[in-house]
Amino acid sequence: MKLPNIVTRILSGFVFIVILIGGIILNQYTFAVVFGLVTGLCIWEFYGLMENKAGVSLSKGQNLAGALLLYGGGYLYVTWGSLIQLSILICIIPYLIYLLSLFISELYMKRTDPLKSLAYSLFGQLYIALPFTSAFYIAFINSSYTPLFMLAVLIIIWVNDTFAYLTGMSIGKHRLFERISPKKSWEGFIGGCIAAIIASIIISHYSSSSLTIAQWIGFALIVVIFGTWGDLFESMIKRTIGVKDSGNMIPGHGGALDRFDSTIFAIPAIGIYLAILTQLN
Length: 281
Hints:
By secondary structure, this protein is an all-alpha fold. It is built from ten helices and two strands, in the order H-H-H-H-H-H-H-E-E-H-H-H.
């Protein structure tokens, strides 16, 4: 890698991390804005890939609006949840209107394969918009805004990715999932997992969370396992349509989906995990 590329990668990565962590830490509004931007970029990038590389005719603007309606509805629901009728009116009805418009519009688009267009449109909502919307459940798990768990998800993913790469490059010999991602190794996966567990123990020591050390270790394992599946799933998509990167939105790092592929699977998995722990407690 040439020096200018390294500098670009470091600077863009630094700005990316500062904006993301700053948005989470500051307050619930900056959290909503930052992850709303992430959702929009990932959705736009995904539908662009499906149009340009997979040859699927889609209404990108309509689907972007639908994703943001779902995301915004999720935020309003967790913050206005006590006002049941109002939350239903504001959160659910707009997204239902989007879904109806999606189906009805296909009657007038005269596309050669409208079912394929609908399938890919709904797939993007399920694959990207819904997981990012579920981030609000994690952020408001204690009824008030609590940034700890979302920060922990991101930190553990970054630690895992870094040490999985370093371990894999150093001693990786046994392929983890060669059909989808030839460079990933079991050694890298184990190295990243151990580092993620250590990170979770450090987080448990310095946080005021009610989770025990064992539960934090479980937290780390779920993030690593589902994050790895998320990474592999996005690799499968890229391999299927014949691209190396999902885009070039982040200089030196590829596209938005490349940076959040692990997060897309880890967020709903951690949401389920925290819900189970809440019920047990």
